[in-house]
Amino acid sequence: MSRRGRKAALPPGEPPRRPPTQVPGTLLVEHRNKKGGVARYDFEECVGAAPLRASMAGLFAGFCTRGVWDSLDTSEQGFWIVQKFSQFMAKYHPEVRDVDGVTVGVWKEWKLSRVMTPTGYNQVTFIARLLREDLRLSPAARETINERITPVKSVEQSYSTDEFTQTTTVARRLFRAAHLRVTANAAYLAAWRAGEYTEGGADWLVGEALDCIARTGDAPRYLGKGDRLRMIHRYIRPMGGQDALHTWRRLFPNLSEMTALATLLTVEHGLNLSTVAHMAVPRAAPDPGEDGFPVYRLELEKQRRGSSRHFETRNFADFGASSPGRLITQALEVTSFARALVHEEAPDLDRLLIWRDSSGRAYGEDIVRVGQFGVGTTTTYACVWAKAEGLPGSPFRRGRRTANVLHRREPGQNTQDTHDSVYVLQDKQAQQGVIGTIADGLDSAVETARETVLVASLRDGPDPNDEPTATADCHDNKRSHFTAHGVSCAASFLLCLACPNARVHPGHHPRLAHLHQALGYLRSVMEPIQWDEDWYDAHARLGHLQKLLGQPAWDRALGDVTQADRDMIDHLLKGDFDQ
Asked: What is the C-alpha to C-alpha distance for residues 193 and 211, in angstroms, rounded to an integer?
């Protein structure tokens, strides 16, 4: 018996049933989720002592019945881990007959046997959760099992630019082809229903076949030899053939195309796969506003551990080809015929991702079947889809991470703390991006600090008690901030503007504006490192003065520069000005 049986879907409108899960007298455990899906696990398939297998089956069944697990994927993964544990016990500790024989040493060996990757971490913590439920576990073993295990950091990273482009290109190509195909045939069908084609002609036969597909889900057929349904011959040539692409796919998308749509919803809006797979049909606001653009309201539900749920709504407007709501408009158009037929069979099933195929394959618990139609998509199928399209694995987890960390840069259906700690801080591309941001911030801080370097006071006119210098007036020449007090200041005149004793009045403005301009000219002919060392600070102080005075006043000062000002600045820059 396989470790997971076929899932059975409930009839529309019937409430889910969750009966006791372990079949009496056997080691067969059934897990039923709230949607009516069923998975069966036979613990006879596990190796090792029969009492230990029976105990593990009972503990496993307890988690199924108490509502701890609702997802069948969770129980399937759990059964796989139990098989790994039973193989370990049978190989290394065949003497342990039941849970009460699990000692501290046995547990530590099991823990050490697992490589501490996310998979290994899940194996250890899962078995720990099961064993804790058994009261026969020894106190010493229970204490050891209860010791905290440090979670393993996720190794999953966002897409590189090339990977993201490749994934979105494939998804857009597939979905766009479906959209063009369905909308073109929908227009054809509308024209036929409006009587625009001559009855009996090729165009009319195509329209009649499309009408049959829209009403029944398939082309016109009859019961032929061997009780096989065959397409009525007169429609085959006008339709171009009798395969899926020329018949039902004219009006219905397939699972590959709906997975492409789910990928686009994930990478554009940062949504979780379970949210996309269970997304209700978006409704447009009844009043589109004066511009007439539809605004869609998306009701989103994200499943969490246990029975908790996260609910939120988002609004997306379709106001053009690149608008957030355009993908929703196209999704509604592509699925319109499929949703209409499913609604007839299951009127309470309100879902966006509906597709048709005739294989009847099971792709995971999230896919509900209504006749020939399937609802939703899964990671299981996405891996198959990605491999067929040459993509690096399922696009949903990495696509969502890329969208929320690098593009949207905000949480997607989780808290800000989770977004920062689990997604942003552990993502290498986000780390690289932050380096530039931090560097820009530091540069900005340095520039700001260097800009605020004018210490001299601004005055409306000269003070008779001040002593004129080459760049400003000095209020106290013997209390310099750059040389010893009690003697005349011997610092460069370029430092006057950095001294609180300096006074700058309008008579200095032309000379200082000319000095600022001259330093700028020097910058263009000197090595940058040398110019920074010799002139940066002086130029920055003058630039700050320019901002304080304003550009009009600075322009007037440049117009008032005299030959005496030019000569003084020339001597100052050459270093032959007598102090």
From this structure: 8
